[in-house]
Write a structure and sequence with these properties.
The protein is mainly alpha-helical. It is built from 12 helices and 2 strands; from the N terminus they run ααβαβααααααααα. The chain has a two-stranded antiparallel ribbon with strand order 1-2. The longest helix has about 35 residues. The chain is elongated and about 70 Å long. It comes from Pseudopithomyces chartarum. This is Wax synthase domain-containing protein.
């Protein structure tokens, strides 16, 4: 809802896309006229976009697009391209390839930034500032797939261990006042503080690894199963940064580091809207 209630997506948002076969009839040449009149020219002769990028007339699918990157505004035609743009907007929680990218998400690589600057005379408002709170970005598609596969396998084993431990604790069966089961060490069972801490840590790790395992599925499916042969630029590894930041942010900044850097920032854009 934050996308359409607090913003005008057609006017405010642009995404990073390859130039070839995309910008021929993406949007009106004169953006101000289209905003005032509420309409835009769909002439077959139009060869430019609202951000000043010119291109060929032929529209190519994602798998056929090559060349450098540029900012792509809301496309007017064809319908399939417009649908792809809208679905990407609403399905992209952190905006890694959008001008509304959250501050905790690492910006595109330097060479991509140079291409955007070179190929877009009128770029949208954006920031490529970097800081220590931003998450890790995988340099290659292979590193991305290996890293997320390791995360998924680790999550499977850790969640299985957590499920086994919690099944032996009456607390997780709804008996909140029951002590720990005799299967646990005596030093845990005899200390209320350690028992409480153990249960909190178990809950925290269960939530964290459940989320990380789920989030690891997206890059494995889109960049691995589908890949650039099906979705083109959407399979670039820098579009799938790590979900969580370094835990040292919590040690350095406390609660602020927990919520602003270490924990996942999936819904940050919506929370920051007025």
């Amino acid at each position: 809802m934050a996308m359409i209630v607090c913003n005008d997506p057609q006017r405010d948002f642009m995404r990073i896309e390859r130039m070839e076969g995309v910008f021929s009839k993406s949007s009106p040449t004169n953006t101000q006229d289209s905003d005032v009149n509420g309409s835009a020219s769909k002439s077959e002769e139009s060869n430019s976009t609202s951000n000043g990028v010119t291109g060929v007339r032929e529209k190519l699918g994602p798998t056929q697009r090559h060349g450098e990157f540029a900012w792509q505004p809301f496309p007017l035609t064809p319908f399939v391209e417009r649908l792809d743009w809208v679905l990407d907007l609403f399905g992209n929680f952190r905006g890694a390839a959008w001008n509304w990218r959250t501050i905790s998400t690492t910006p595109p690589p330097k060479q991509i930034q140079d291409q955007l600057l070179r190929n877009t005379p009128n770029p949208p408002p954006h920031s490529f500032r970097t800081h220590i709170s931003q998450t890790h970005v995988y340099p290659t598609r292979r590193a991305l797939l290996i890293g997320n596969l390791k995360t998924l396998l680790a999550g499977y084993l850790i969640l299985d261990a957590i499920k086994t431990l919690s099944s032996h604790d009456p607390y997780f069966w709804g008996y909140l006042d029951r002590p720990l089961s005799p299967v646990f060490p005596a030093f845990l069972r005899e200390s209320k503080i350690l028992t409480h801490a153990f249960r909190l840590v178990l809950c925290q790790f269960g939530i964290k690894w459940a989320l990380q395992s789920i989030f690891a599925l997206a890059p494995l499916f889109f960049a691995g199963v589908l890949g650039p042969d099906v979705i083109g630029a959407r399979a670039e590894p820098w579009m799938y940064p790590a979900t969580c930041g370094a835990y040292t942010l919590v040690l350095d900044k406390g609660l602020a580091g927990w919520w602003s850097g270490w924990w996942h920032q999936t819904f940050r854009f919506a929370f920051e809207q007025p």
